[in-house]
Design a protein that fits this description.
The complex is a heterodimer of chains A (312) and B (274). With 312 residues, chain A is mainly alpha-helical. In chain A, 73% of the residues lie in helices and 1% in strands. Chain A has a domain at 92-278 and 293-310: MetI-like fold, CATH 1.10.3720.10. Chain A has helices at 2-6, 22-30, 34-54, 73-80, 82-114, 120-132, 135-146, 153-161, 168-171, 173-198, 202-210, 215-242, 247-253, 262-271, 276-309; strands at 57-58, 68-69. Chain A has a two-stranded antiparallel sheet with strand order 1-2. In chain A, helix 3 runs antiparallel to helix 15 (276-309) and helix 4 (73-80) crosses helix 15. Chain B is mostly helical and 274 residues long. Chain B contains 13 helices and no strands. Chain B has helices spanning 2-31, 35-38, 52-57, 67-96, 103-114, 119-131, 138-161, 166-174, 179-208, 211-216, 224-229, 239-259, 261-268. The chains are: A mainly alpha (312), B mainly alpha (274). Chains A and B meet through helix 2, helix 3, helix 5, helix 6 and helix 7 of A and helix 1, helix 4, helix 5, helix 6 and helix 7 of B. Chain A: Residues 1-17 have a biased composition (Low complexity). Chain A: Keywords: Cell membrane, Membrane, Transmembrane, Transmembrane helix, Transport.
């Protein structure tokens, strides 16, 4: 840091005699960045490399002596084992459903909240609440307080209208997990899309209205194209978080009844079954899945970002 | 006609808001009911209020006290947030005010680490902690939470610091101000609200985290979310207590989130949405 204080930003030629060498200056500029970079590489990249290495070993933590190199056996097992393959499918289904449903609901709510009405600030605050409940607490709330077949709020309300009283978690386990996640993530989507709506060019919309465009035409041809990037951003950030979801699956069903997703399976195979090699292979597969999403995500964020940099 | 429609849409917004808030409100109401009143079907909206659920939760009615877990969560969240700021501020400075070459690439490297799922490195970290005797140690969580939030913090602060007009910095420099003065007098006033928002978001994410804490802590370093997992199998026997516990643990996040709604959006979308 001390070095940066002496290095001028852009050395004017008049100062040439006192200017440090370009190499020194380059390092002085980089120096503040290095602690963060080194820290990130050590704490996130090294463990991942270790995971990749472990994934090629047959290694049960209870029998450490029997550890041996098995090549792609673990991957073969993850992809052919019916249970594990099911958890891959569950992860895809869970992520896609939650992201799409919360995005559509979030869009509807953002459109409602974009208009002026009495108590808009209060409604906005009410809507954000689900996102601010600690995820484990939210999962507990759904599991015990809402879904409980005997005294849960859902069946309690159904009692008043004389409807059926299902055992939500046993009857529709994956749907139960998805509903709780949709409830938590819809506010997030709403917040991003609302920010998108409020950054629209109002003059353009006024002009279109003067030209006789209907609400639907304005939505279809002005609002939706403008929102595209925000929809993509919400979908991708949501995917990155939900593909990793552990709290809801762990709390509501403990991975039972066919709701185990990959993060839960990884947790279970090394924390309970002590299968280090298998867990690592599953972990690497989660990463490959995430990379597919992430490359797309980075492209979208990068386009948003470039737009901002080029802004005058 | 138009007014009727407008009023209808406002009403629809209100109904949606109430529907989404209902579980939270119901959790709060149940937490103030006695266990008998909490476990009735149909639900009782008018049962007398009591603090029994909270008394049970805080351990005066038997059971483990949540205080150590709450303190651990506070330590892990606050300490990791401070570390994040310490590492992210210089990095964001190098990426925005005096950009290094290829700075966008560096920025994207930070973001890409956020896309790496937690489970991708969990096992080696567990094995390392076990061999180093660092299992059930709160400082291990502090290090991991720092790495979890650092990318977000660098991104957010980069975008906040970039809002400081370069012309003002140049003018201060011409007037003979040195870096510490420039940082304190020019950069800080513009960037401070953003830095506060960044700290808030790091705090929330650390406070909420479960997987690392569940795997790497036990009795001593247990955090509040891990404490909550103790209620997973209590089949509705302690409904009021579960609600009181969930609400108490969520309270810091609810308070912080309500207080900084707009900054929350900006932070969660990594500064891409203004």
């Amino acid at each position: 840091m001390t070095a940066t204080t002496t290095a001028p930003v852009a050395a004017p030629s008049a100062q040439a005699p006192r200017t440090p060498s370009p190499r020194l200056r380059a390092w002085a500029t980089r120096a503040p960045l290095l602690p963060a970079l080194v820290f990130m590489i050590v704490v996130t990249q090294l463990p991942f490399v270790a995971t990749v290495v472990i994934s090629f070993f047959d290694w049960n933590a209870l029998y450490p002596k029997a550890r041996r190199f098995t090549g792609f056996d673990n991957y073969h097992q993850v992809l052919t084992d019916a249970d594990l393959r099911h958890s891959v499918w569950t992860t895809v289904l869970l992520t896609a459903t939650v992201v799409l449903v919360s995005l559509v609901l979030g869009l509807a709510l953002a459109l409602l909240l974009d208009r002026r009405f009495r108590g808009r600030g209060v409604v906005r605050t009410l809507l954000i609440a689900p996102f601010l409940v600690v995820p484990v607490a939210a999962a507990l709330l759904w599991k015990h307080v809402l879904y409980n077949p005997e005294y849960g709020l859902l069946n309690g309300l159904l009692h008043y209208v004389g409807g059926p009283q299902p055992d939500w978690i046993s009857d529709t386990p994956l749907l139960a997990v998805e509903a709780s996640l949709v409830w938590q993530w819809t506010p997030f989507m709403m917040l991003i899309l609302l920010a998108g709506l409020q950054s629209r060019d109002q003059q353009q919309i006024e002009a279109a209205r003067v030209d006789g465009a209907s609400d639907w035409q304005i939505f279809r041809h002005l609002t939706l194209p403008h929102l595209r990037r925000y929809l993509e951003l919400g979908a991708l950030l949501g995917s990155v978080y939900i593909v990793q979801n552990f709290d809801a699956v762990f709390t509501i069903t403990s991975g039972g009844l066919g709701t185990a997703n990959l993060p839960y399976t990884v947790y279970q195979s090394f924390y309970q079954a002590h299968e280090n090699g298998l867990a690592s292979a599953a972990g690497v597969l989660v990463v490959i899945g995430s990379i597919v999403i992430a490359t797309f995500a980075l492209r979208v964020v990068s386009s948003l970002f470039r737009e901002e940099v080029s802004r005058p | 006609m138009n007014a009727v429609r407008r009023g209808g849409l406002g009403l629809l917004a209100w109904v949606s808001g109430i529907v989404f808030f209902l579980p939270v409100a119901w959790m709060a109401l149940t937490s103030f009911h006695s266990e008998q009143d909490a476990a009735t079907n149909p639900p009782s909206f008018t049962a007398p209020l009591t603090l029994d659920g909270y008394r049970e939760f805080f351990g005066t009615g038997g059971g483990a006290s949540p205080w150590p877990a709450l303190v651990n969560s506070a330590v892990a969240s606050v300490a990791s947030t401070l570390f994040v700021l310490l590492l992210a501020l210089p990095a964001a400075y190098a990426l925005s005010i005096r950009p290094v070459r290829k700075w966008t690439d560096v920025l994207f490297f930070f973001l890409s680490t956020k896309m790496l799922p937690v489970v991708a490195g969990l096992l080696p970290i567990y094995l390392f902690a076990k061999n180093a005797g660092m299992l059930d140690n709160i400082w291990l969580l502090v290090i991991l939470y720092t790495s979890m939030n650092l990318p977000i913090a660098v991104w957010m602060m980069q975008s906040f610091l970039a809002e400081v007009p370069v012309a003002i910095i140049e003018a201060a420099r011409v007037d003979g101000a040195r870096l510490p003065t420039i940082l304190a007098r020019v950069v800080a006033p513009v960037a401070l609200p953003g830095i506060a928002a960044t700290a808030l978001i790091c705090f929330i994410f650390s406070w909420n985290e479960l997987l690392f804490a569940r795997v790497l802590t036990g009795v001593v370093a247990e955090t509040a979310p891990v404490f909550l997992t103790g209620f997973i199998t209590s089949q509705g026997l302690f409904l009021a207590k579960v609600c009181a516990a969930s609400l108490v643990v969520s309270l810091p996040v609810l308070a912080a989130g309500f207080a900084a709604q707009d900054k929350l959006v900006q932070g969660l979308s990594l500064g891409a949405v203004k």
